[in-house]
Amino acid sequence: MAAEKLSVVKAINASLRTALENDPKVLVMGEDVGKLGGVFRVTDGLQKDFGEDRVIDTPLAESGIVGTAIGLALRGYRPVVEIQFDGFVFPAYDQIVTQLAKMHARALGKIKLPVVIRIPYGGAIGAVEHHSESPEALFAHVAGLKVVSPSNASDAYWMLQQAIQSDDPVIYFEPKRRYHDKSELDRSAIPAPLHAARTVRQGTDLTLVAYGPMVKTCLEAAAAAEEEGKSLEVLDLRSMSPVDFDAIQASVERTGRLVVVHEAPVFLGTGAEIAARITERCFYHLEAPVLRVGGYHAPYPPSRLEDEYLPGLDRVLDAVDRALAY
Amino acid sequence: MTVDSTAARKPRRGSSKRAGAKTRAAAPGEPELVQLLTPEGERVEHPDYSIDLTADELRGLYRDMVLTRRFDAEATTLQRQGELGLWASLLGQEAAQIGSGRATRADDYVFPTYREHGVAWCRGVDPTNLLGMFRGVNHGGWDPNENNFHLYTIVIGSQALHATGYAMGVAKDGADSAVIAYFGDGASSQGDVAEAFTFSAVYNAPVVFFCQNNQWAISEPTERQTRVPLYQRAQGYGFPGVRVDGNDVLAVLAVTKAALERARTGQGPMLIEAFTYRMGAHTTSDDPTKYRRDEERELWEAKDPILRLRTYLDREGLADEAFFAALETEADALAKRVRDAVRTMPDPDNMAIFENIYADGHALVDEERAQFAAYQASFAEESN
Ligand SMILES: Cc1ncc(C[n+]2csc(CCOP(=O)(O)OP(=O)(O)O)c2C)c(N)n1
């Protein structure tokens, strides 16, 4: 099949459609996912084609959504639940952290929890509070959960396929500011493993690691840096739990410098873990300390200030300059 | 109808019956609800709830509803013009909000969700304050203690617990004020709301739960949240619940007054389900044509809360043309004031990102604030 060009939203929709077609145990659940097709239209048309029994409009209760998804999974279903916005996952956080993450271990591996939790996340859409947050570290910190985020249509499609097929709970963060960006999807391709990082641009002077919405920003930064004669490598991490440290290490051993970029607050974020591990692994290869660019230790600000809060080209390039100055 | 009508009963004032007032039973197939003013603008009586208002007071309620609707329409327009990022319209819910808002006393405390612009109006919150959050210049923008009107709450259902805790505090203090929490029919599914019912009941907290059942939670109809009428939920928790015609400002006022009075006099919580309708979209980002039919809206337009009071005022000769003309002028002026205020609303200073994160300060915030300031300053130097 030839590659098609489509948006991230359409790719996720296509992926859900494929999963619903291929496996009668797959269910789609969430608020407004039915007739409305979700507030971002990610589930558009699915209820019409697969019925209310498989594409389920749930009551407005996130703890209920995840809690019942756990029960359905125990009964052999593979629920894919939608949390409407990042800031609304917390009523379900208890179920996710105290129950979903730990049951497999408590049952000595005898039960499996193939639950996927889709969460549109991140900012830059001019929304009111609780609609722009990046809480991935809160989930990555919890053993028993896997945490991933695609940055383009192809990954959106394939990583969701893999997440649904996984017997582990997967938190699937969707970069909502990139929902309408189009890129190629080849449905006959053999996808990379779910937790493998990918080199999206090769370079020799410094490695930029990003995931989700910040991959595009880092590619733009790399293009801008090239005009100044700097060669930046960009790695799309794709998975925040587990993290593909080998891929980062391999890149850093060649470039000698690392900057990690994410929208989430820097303090105790994904970047902190990467900086620590890579410092351990690559101490003698590093020409500069690992730097991080991300959000502040502040609540996500009102939308008129989000451009200042979010890492943009300037802040990424500033960190690049600082790393190269060592 | 009340589940526990004796508990919710309010002593009736002798003079409350107007000549010709009828008691109206629910028509077959219609939900049972407390009604004092029919959709046709006809005054009726209810055995448990009555109200006797002066012409002045009736005109006041009408004025509140008209001004609130105008404010709301102006905000919707401002959103369309790009001045606001989002707006949650209350169109159709004016009676539920004005009736309940006017039932509160200055020392009562209100915990709203995000659509309670009419209640805010009754509490004396400057309407322009409500717009900052939707414009994206702040996350709230008013001092909740100034008018005992708490900040808007986006996370569905959370405030029901805050209201309950506040009410527990009121009771501990031996005060005789009451607390009212607003939420939607969708919110009734949240665990927080169920937990608020539990806490308020076991601690006999002086809190009134005011659920505006506007029939929809974004695209999901009330049937997606419950199989029993929402007001009946209260019974299982051990306090009374009542369904009131949410488009009847008189009935909402009477029922809310009674519930607040109950709370004040130590009789504990009560649930009011105001049966109403969201005439517009959920917010300006929503497209209701995806999930509901125009005929439904038309049906509810016939029950318009403002129209019915207008009919009543006209019929009883309680307001003259001069009143309506003056109100029109006042509404235009309000709209203009709101428009001007929004257009000139300054963007927050960049450093606001780091303000008010901790009451006692925090070293990491101080460090990041300084870094941010230096980084911002570096651009200023470059352009010099
Ligand atoms: C915990 C949580 N989940 C989801 C949302 C997204 N959301 C915002 S409003 C809304 C529907 C609310 O319906 P209802 O409670 O009936 O109130 P209404 O808006 O109709 O007044 C939803 C799902 C949210 N704000 N908070």
UniProtKB/TrEMBL annotation, chain A:
Its cofactor is thiamine diphosphate. Keywords: Oxidoreductase, Thiamine pyrophosphate. It comes from the Bacteria. InterPro entries: THDP-binding (IPR029061), Transketo_C/PFOR_II (IPR009014), Transketolase-like_Pyr-bd (IPR005475), Transketolase_C (IPR033248). Gene3D superfamilies: 3.40.50.920, 3.40.50.970. Pfam families: Transket_pyr, Transketolase_C. GO terms for molecular function: magnesium ion binding; oxidoreductase activity. Residues 6-181 form the Transketolase-like pyrimidine-binding domain. This is 2-oxoisovalerate dehydrogenase. It comes from Streptomyces albireticuli. The lineage of its organism: Bacteria, Bacillati, Actinomycetota, Actinomycetes, Kitasatosporales.
